[in-house]
Amino acid sequence: MMKIITNATVITVNEQNEVIYNGAVGFDGGKITYVGKTPEDLSAYDEIIDGTNKYLMPGFINTHGHVGMSLLRGFADDLPLKQWLEDKMWPMEGQFTAEHVKWGTAISIIEMIRTGTTTFVDMYDHMETVAQEVEASGMRGVLCRGVIGFCSEEERQQKLQEAASFASRWNGAANGRIHTMMSPHAPYTCSPEYIQQILEKAIELNVPLHIHMSESKAEVEQNVQDYGVRPVAHLENLGVFNHPTLVAHAVHLTDEEIDTLAKYNVKVAHNPISNLKLASGVARVPEMLAKGVCVSLATDSSASNNNLNLFEELKLAAILHKGVSYDPEVVPAEEALRMATRYAADAVFQKDSLGSLEVGKKADMIMLNAAQAHFQPANDPISHVVYAANGYDVTDTIVDGHFLMKDKELITMDEQKAIAEVNRVFALLKQ
Ligand SMILES: [Zn+2]
Predict the structure, then answer these.
(1) pLDDT (0 to 100) of residue 55
(2) Top-level CATH class of 3-59+361-410?
(3) Which of 8, 151, 374, 393 has the highest Cβ tally under 10 A?
């Protein structure tokens, strides 16, 4: 089935960062077959979708989060990370069943489809349920069972087996829309031996590793106390960086640590809103980008954000680093946009198939209504998307060539049911 979207302003995010006016993107099944000016002759296409007054661009890739935690949105705000985790999040999450995670995932996926995210990374428990929701919704996911080592040796081995079994069974599932990873939660929740065991499994299964790292100052100090080195050297010594790895946060880094991440080509998920809300600090993004580190954008969970609308991260990443460095030239709009698309595709080890509108890549794309007052005058689409847009300007979301939202209408998800169910299962938790 050959389809084409015509007459759109196409923001390709290709190598040359091309914007094509009166542009078109053709796709056959899940693959992009044409990107260019709207052709005169459209007879080869089975379906023609009019993109007049629309921005057409690659869907966003959210490179770190825990979608099940949307159930805890607004439950515990304005607390320090350690207290927030230990006193609020973990006791509630301890009560979660697959049903809680199912509905937390469903409202998250709905929110992401509505705000232009087409791929998300998820590290959590009950991942079978998350994978089923990804499969049913038509979304693309990079999923891992995050493991925390605070338990008996027997339980640790059981979690490791569960994570490995999940990673091996679901990798490539849902017509290739699901990829998997292995995930020790963090250096402060997993012993060095446990991290190494998880790494060995990742090597064996040939899947990347995903881990939280250097999120807070206290965590870095604790690591030095416990192991004599900061988290970057700790993970380097354990051999983690010899394997494809995506780290979340990387807020507290020395110059030398940035060099280490660049040397090993470690990918970074930058979560500016979550880091600000938990008062963890501001990651040294301009320095990382200058050294060639792959930095992508992410929301983290709705418990620390409190939404999954990546347009907010896009704007914040572009302005936050200007403010803290007193340099308006750092993280320009087009660089921020690459962090949400091209670089993010690289961060999830799918740069050949995702992250830009180019022939041969997956047809994962979004359209925004450009005929709105806040997008006028229509002079610079990339500036408007980064600085003026919000997630609810998205009208259409397409993954693997399928519409998940068309003219603001959800195709694959039952929003009213998800809203009712998430409130029902939340009410059953003991607070
Ligand atoms: Zn996280």
Answers:
(1) 98
(2) mainly beta
(3) 8
